[in-house]
Amino acid sequence: MDRLPVELLSLVATYLQRWNIAPQPFSHLTETSECGTVGWLTHTSLSRRDICSFRLVCQKCHSSSLRTFGELLGDRVFRWTKVGMKDIQALSDHAPLKPYIRTLTFGNAQFKNRDNYALQMGSLAYPDAQRKRLLRAYADYYQWQLDHDGNYYDKAISVVLANLPNLRNLRLLISDAPDVHLGGWLSAEDKESDALVRLNDFVSESDESIYDSGQGVIERLSSLIVALEETVLRIEDFRIGCGYAVHPLNLCNWMIPRSMLHVRHLRFDIDPENLGEDSPNATFEENVLSELSDLESLSLSLVHDAAFTQFAKATADLVMLLRNLSCLEKLTVRGEWSYTENDLFALVDDCESLKTLVLKGPILLEGSWTSVVERVLATRSSTLQHFQLSSMSFRQPNTKITPAFDGAPWQDFIGDVRPSIEEHGKCTVYLSSGDYGYVFRPSQR
After folding, report:
1. How far is Cα 225 from Cα 321, in angstroms, rounded to an integer?
2. Angle 108-109-111 (CA atoms, 0-180°, nearest 5)?
3. CATH topology of domain 245-444
4. Mean pLDDT of the region 275-280
5. InterPro entries of this UniProt entry (predicted)?
6. Residue limits of CATH 3.80.10.10 in the chain
7. Which of these, 228, 198, 190, 230, lies nearest to 82 by C-alpha position?
């Protein structure tokens, strides 16, 4: 192995990368993954194991795999805890590795008060000596958390980011419950942390946990933005995980710093209640979004259900905001968001550079799905490369949501839209409703 050139070993290491992609058509285009990390790609556990094992073969394998290992570390979730901060600081100080760190993922979980039910009841399962050691470890982690406030995190993260000159991607995991060995990265020697993880496993079947997850999102994101303002970094990819509806005003405030104005990929959850042209901040939001002149990919997930009439208004407001994104090439909207046929037409009509449109769970309030497919393809026939409507549904006022097609109607629908799909044969199309699906690839023509 030592006789092989470094370039070849580096190539071997890259082939060990495998992505955790959902088993559905074209999922690599929508970056679909497990719940909580929908909207970004992660390595499989086997890929993680293989890359780490490769680095242990010899010194040459270790040094030639720095780039691949740096990419792998993008999956490692760094939490705002004693262990998490210690690890990320050590990583940023590692001179051979830090040029290859392009992605950082932060978690949001912290320890609850020492009197919480999960800790007190779960620890009873351990022998007395181990229980005392476990509670001491927990008390240490919790006290560290109390002793370190936002100012500490602002400064500590600033130092970390300044040490990573090629950092381009930032992610925050919201639904962050480190119940499986801290995401698979826990060292076997870390006995105290290991005991805490197994304790959380013990109570995982109930609603109780020793961790607070999904709390302090604004504070965590604000610390990241403050830290970024102290650097010369240009963040290109900014993704906020599922589980927290980001208010457009907060998002706009985070986009203002110089380091964020060149974001090319953006992902976050949104609540229809937070959209509205009547909001006093609506003009500000539109102006800030128009400053994101490099934004190519936008991924949104719907968090909360909304009233029938409110959905229609929120969709119109969303379309208005998207008009400012002149360079948008890829738009993904997940969740049971309601549209009219004209909404969908306006969406693609305004985004002249759109190449990929993915709607997962769309509900049609008025109009025809047949007409939607025909109009979208006709409007963007020269640019659209991928068009996906997954789990299409209908909903009428005061009625439940139902699949748009079933049985014979589905076959009729495909028969109606197939001529338009084949006419604009440069676009890959995926349609589904209920148990039925249809795929068209340009090569089928």
Report:
1. 23
2. 145
3. 3.80.10
4. 58
5. LRR_dom_sf
6. 245-444
7. 190
Question: 357: closest CA among 337, 327, 377, 335?
Answer: 377
Amino acid making up residue 204: S
Q: Which of 136, 217, 220, 236 is nearest to 175 (CA)?
A: 217
The CA distance from 178 to 159, in Å, is 25
Amino acid letter at 297? S
Residue 280 Cα distances to 269, 274, 286, angstroms: 21, 12, 12
Place of tokens 């982690």: 141
| CB neighbour list of residue 313: distance below 8 Å, 6 or more residues apart | 275, 276
Distance CA 427, CA 20 (A): 25
CA of 171: how far to CAs of 160, 232, 237, 309, 335, in Å? 15, 18, 8, 33, 21
The token duo for 275 is: 């959209």
Query: What does the pLDDT read at residue 207?
Result: 43
First CA to last CA distance, the chain: 48
Q: Treating both helix axes as pointing N-terminal to C-terminal, what angle do 82-92 and 150-162 enclose, rounded to 10 degrees? A: 20
| 3-class DSSP string for the chain | CCCCCHHHHHHHHHCCCCECCCCCCCHHHHCCCCCCCCCCCCECHHHHHHHHHHHCCCHHHHHHCHHHHHHHHHHCEECCCHHHHHHHHHHHCCCCCHHHCCEEEECCCEECCCCCHHHHHHHHHCCHHHHHHHHHHHHHHHHHHHHCCHHHHHHHHHHHHHCCCCCCEEEECCCCCCCCHHHHCCCCCCHHHHHHHHHHHHCCCCCCCCEECCCCHHHHHHHHHHHHHCCCCCCCEEEECCCCECCHHHHHHHHCCHHHCCCCEEEEEECHHHCCCCCCCHHHHHHHHHHCCCCCEEEEEECCCCCHHHHHHHHHHHHHHHCCCCCCCEEEEECCCEEEHHHHHHHHHHCCCCCEEEEECCEEEECCHHHHHHHHHHHCCCCCCEEEEECCEECCCCCCCEECCCCHHHHHHHHHHHHHHHHCCCCEEEEEECCEEEEECHHHC
And the tokens for 94?
Answer: 């590692």
Q: What is the pLDDT of residue 33?
A: 46
Amino acid at 298: L
Highest mean pLDDT: which range of 9-13, 161-165, 338-342: 161-165
Length of the chain: 445
pLDDT at 35 (0 to 100): 46
